[in-house]
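Cross-posting from the modeling subforum.

Setting up a comparison between two proteins and wanted a second pair of eyes on the formatting. Protein 1 (sequence, then structure tokens):
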Amino acid sequence: MKINLLSNNRVLLALRMVMGGVFILASVDKIINPSMFAMILKEYKLIPDILVPLVAVTLPWIEFFTGVFVLADIFTQSSALIMIGLNLVYIAGIVINLVWGLVHECGCFTIFGLNEPIGGFSIARDIVFILLSLPLLFYGTNEFTFRKKEKI
């Protein structure tokens, strides 16, 4: 019998805690200060100016609730797919800006004062986040159920 480490419930729980926490932490400062996030979004020059306020207000909440759902093990597969999709979009935005010669603040984790410029580290970090989300996509649950606690 072949056992897959990535499908182990404890491993999935650890991945849910890490990725849920990452997305919640990434969203908090953007939710608190959407005007600052809007300024960062404008620096990317990828979103029409008329849509920047809408994206600046909605994207952090998508990150927040995706993180909450993953932590709570609610629609984990769908949330992991959203996480992967967002990270792919983030990587594409960073790469396009680097190709254009634009170097500016990433806007990823401003809550801790981590205002690093876009670059290889940002891309590598997002790739790691994608890799950490893949087991949640493949082995997580996509259910919304209240489970009875088993007696020990």
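Protein 2 (same layout):
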Amino acid sequence: MMPYKSLYIRLFPVFMKKYMKEQYGAYITKMAFRNAPSIYRDMLWKVDDIGADNPMAGNIYMAFVFMAIWKAADGKIDIKSYRTVVRNTVTKSFLRKFIGKNDLNSPDGVKNGKEKMLRMKEWADSHPQYMGKTWDINFDDSLHRDGFFYYFTQCPINTFARKNGYIEVLPVCCELDHILTEASHGKLIRKYTLATDGNMCDYWIVPDRIKEPQ
């Protein structure tokens, strides 16, 4: 169980409303937004506790909003169109002002991006009570010259989705990785995701000014 926080489920529908109505109309949008909060609360009750102060916890709170709204529409939201809704919400609404703060093309961009993920790893390593529940972040600097590379084989969102019937919509949430990297003027080069039955989620992140990363 993770502590209930209403901020995400109250805030995100405000920015999603326009794009939801474009795809599904006012009735389905209203129904999904009305039913989602109770589903969201139940999801947080069922998910594994990864630590309330876990710096990766925001990934759960954000992804669960999109998953709860999809579930709340009771089959009326198809995955293809929902990808468009999620992308537009993050890149075209007021939310755009809060992402992409780190420019990967800047002199310290790659260093800052890697250090951020190292802090996430350090937190997990220093809280062994959450091992097997939170993300297990691993770095490999030997594979690439450009950017930085890390991967994990454990994701609490994937674990939850498989146990509770959300695996169909999970890849939409995984695409947020690409969207957020693009907002930082970067490219995410990826071969695998746990959501699509890979044995890991891999992240090779490079500045988008590099046309042929090595």
